[in-house]
Structures are given as C-alpha cells and as structure tokens.
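User: What would this chain look like folded?
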Amino acid sequence: MLKFAISLSYLILYVGAVHAQQYVPGEVIVKLKSESGSSDSYAFLGKAHSDKEMALKESWGKMKMYHFALKKGQTVEQAVADLKKDPNVLYAEPNYIFSKTTEQVGMHETFSAEQIQTASVSAQNYQATGANIGVQTVWTSTSGMPAVKPVVAVIDTGLDTTHYVFQDSQAIWTNDDEIPGNGIDDDGNGYVDDRHGWNFVDNSPTMYDDDGHGTHVSGIILSIDQNIYATPLRESRIKIMPLKFLNGNGVGTTSNAIRAIYYAVNNGATVLNNSWGGTSYSAALHEAVAFTYNSKAIFVAAAGNSGMNNDSTPMYPASYDVPNVISILATTDYDYKASFSNFGAQTVDLGSPGVFILSTVPNDAFGTSSGTSMAAPFVAGTAAQIKVEAPTMLGYQMKTILKQQYTAVSQLNGQVETSGRLNSGLAVNFAKTAAIDTNQPGYTVNYSADRDLASNVAGGGGCGTVRALAEKTPPWGGAGAVVVLLLAPIVVLVIMRLRAPANRRKHERFKIHSDVRLMVGDKEMVGSISSISLGGVQVNTSALMQDGGLVTMAIASPDGSERIEVSGRVVWSEANKAYGVQFAQTPQSVLSRIADWTRGLQKVS
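Assistant: Here's the prediction, encoded as structure tokens.
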C-alpha cells in the first residue's frame, strides 16, 4: 500500500509540474507595435525608464523587441499585466527558462581516444546507430569538398573547441572578418573577438563546455559527415558554429536563446540544432524561429524527454508551427520509441536514434548519453549533408526531403507524423538530383492566442525531465487540482493492473551475471542482471525504480562480447533493490539472442 501511495503521489507531482511555467524573476520581454526609431518607440522607452524604472538589457530593433529588468520589488505578473495595457505594446511576457532535453547524470561510460581506436566500442556504436540510418552511404558517396561549407549552429552548452576530433577535421566555424584577441569588433556585428562563435551566458567569445552536452551533440552532427572514431580524420565538409546559451546546469533563458538564433542566421548558419526546450510558450521565441524560416534555414528541435504527447502538451521550440521546424523523437536500436521520448502523431515529425549514443565529450574523450538531445543532431547533420549536395536548397525543402526519404517502421505508427525513422543515406542521395524549389509558403506569427501566466512561479528548468520536475512544487490549486482529480481514478486503475501477481512463470529462468545500462525516464543508471528468461530479467541496482515504470535496458551477454537493447516494465520490487522487469514488444531477433545466451546457463529452480 505504501508503494502504491508513493507511485500515485509521484505521478500526480509529475503531471502537475509538467504544466508549470518557469521564468527569470524581475525580467520581461516586450514587443512594440511601432517601428524602432519612431517617435512612439522613443516615447515608450523613455516612459519605461523614467516612470516604470525599467532598465533596458537588450534590444532587437528590427523585430521591435526589447528585454527589460524590472524595478526592485515588482513581480513579473504585475509588470506584464501593466505593460499589456499600454496601447503601443503588442505583447509582453516573462523571460522564460529552457533547458537541455536530456539529463546527463554523468556519462554512463567514458572512453579515451586510445580506447576508442583500439577497442570495439566505436564499431558497436556504428552498428547500432550509423548502420541503421545509412551514414556509411553518406561517408562514401557524398560529392567532394563544397566551395562553401554549410554552417550548422549548435545552440547549446558550448563546445570543447580543443577536442582533437574537431581540430583534426577542421570542423569549427571561423568568422574570417574578425581578428582574434584584439579587443575590437572588427566586423561590426556587435560581438568583440567572436572568431568561432559566442558565449551568451558570460558574454564572451569563449565557448567552454562546462556541461558536456554541446560537445556530445556536436560530435553526433559531425558523425554524419565522417567516421569520427577513425584515424586519421579527414577535413570536414561542414562547419559547426558553437553558440553557448545554456549554463553548466543545462539551463538558459529565452532572451539568450533569441540572441543565439539571430546570431546564427545573421552569421551564415543554414542549419540550427536545438537540443533543448520547455513547456512555456514564448511569442518572442516564436518570432525568432520564424526569422530562421524567412532566412531560408532549417530548425531542428528535440521533441522532449518527459514521455508526453506533444499534440496535447506542447514542448517549445519543437511545437512551434513554423514550416521549417522539424521535431524529432528518440528511437531505440530496434526502432521503437524510447521510453522517455515525447511523441505526437500530429506535431512530431520523425524518429531518430537517441539511446546510449556514443559521441565526443570534453578533454579528448568520448561518452554515451541518451535523449531526444541525441536524436536531433543526427537529423541536423543529415540536413547539413543535404546542403553539401544542394547548396541553394531552402530549409523548408530540406525538411520535406527528410520527411519523405525515411525508413518506415510500424513501431512508430501513431508516434510521429511520418511513422518513420531517419534515413540519412536516402535523404542525402535524393538531394543530389532533386529539383531546387526557390519558393516557400508565407508564414506569419499569430498573436491572437493570449496566454495567461501561471502564478507564484519561481525560476527553474523547463525541460520536463523527471529530476527537474521532482524538485518543483506542484500547482495544487486551480486547474492543476482539477487535472489531478480527473486523472486520479485512471492512475489508480493503471497501477493496480500493473501490480497484478507475476508469479505465474511462462518462461524458464536462468542464472546470469551480466551488467546492464538502464534508462529510467531520462536518467541513465547502472546495475547487474542475476536472472534472465525470454519474458524478462531480474535487475539489481541501487537506483530507485517505481513499480509499473518503463525501462530501456542495454544488457551485456554472459561473456561481455555484445549487448542487446530491450524495453520493459517494472512488475515487482524488493527492499534490497532487486526488480523484476518484464519485456515489452521485444523483437524476435532479440529473443533469439537471449535464447542463445541461455544455452549452458544454470536454470533457476
């Protein structure tokens, strides 16, 4: 009964917190109706400074948009309500908080360059991901070095620009109009010494990656161009522009996201990778994304890691209806939706590998991580290779090709609009002979839907991840309470069914001593397997897992020579941290491997 109460309260906390909005205290973003430099705009700015005691932090004149700090003691809710009454204000909103769409609770495994080049680690990773999506076709059949290399903006936590993979492949974008280290804004773009990008967190040209997320994402993008585990590396056909707007905790603000997006497009990026998000709608960010569309770029966005349906619970920026946005779900090695991944038959476009992905991490190392954060850059890297083949192709057409040249998989029916998973080889080869469409549909941001603010909201991560949600206070009053009450009977029924007796043995069990990597929600964990059958396993781990919870596992064979990936559901648990996990939707090929493993193993009586 206690476990049931814990499960119920945890799910209620999760549901309530998903809908909370987080933003920076004491800051707002305002869009004016009048043009920048007009008498009305000057009048508003003067009034904001003298009457409202608001301090201007940033302005985007062409967009008629301004970022203000409020006077001490004024709440965001009060300021937004007051500003909306001004006849010259089109909209006013908080400076919302977003975060990376993965929780890297440390890399599960890290490898040195020597280990990558001498062990079978990289080969296994290629077989599990690259081979499935046809990257070898891209490596070997893509045309020669382009006259102008496509630029991919990685809007993230930064990049370890000293990592040998990026150095040896010459993959890092360079601003040729900027002289490094002279303290002068040589190209007049408003950023001093921005030779290789910009750090919007610290307002500096140093994109150090104090989280590791951006370096991991960048390596995945580059892996579509070439085998990043090979020696020697060849010159890259693309350039990666690192733009740091997420801090060391993987958290960033709307204002810095907007600055990064405008910087990317204004400095030549035609592919933007966005492995971050939140549940808060921002009209200002919506406009920035629309700006990328009007600039002919493609905007790749991670769908999110809360296991939610984006059709009913949007995740931004992935859920903006801008025609160049392509929203990406994470798949397992067997093309099932990853247990943690958001989905949406109407609002999520395509699946892409996102479980235990090996890529670059800081300090010349490699590591594995999981999330839609890892799925999106496979698509961004593919889009960049499409630009290699068709330099004048618009982002809108690139999205169309990616959604037409894919691998159809029945497991994704009802999960994504295409019912398919990325196929880089097909998409890039198709682009070689595709007729270039020089026109794209018009698009205008619709401001008609006025969204009210949630009250009493503190700053915090908006990624919808389990750890972040568990740290928030749920909105028990108002609509939050209604949602909880409506869902409670369903939750009770589901959990009771999941806790049905599991003592009827359908398959023979065997003793086994193997390690296992687990994805529970969005968290990576480790453990061991003490028994296995064709129906499930006994997992031993110090991590807490809830009865009825979905788990994705990478199980090592008894001799450690291979791993299989399988999803399951926790059906029982013991006080000593032993859990029974029942397999779910297991491919026959996996069951055959398990059967091979159990030959010679001792049966459990």
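Residues 478-498 form the longest helix (21 residues). If you want, I can go into more detail on any region.
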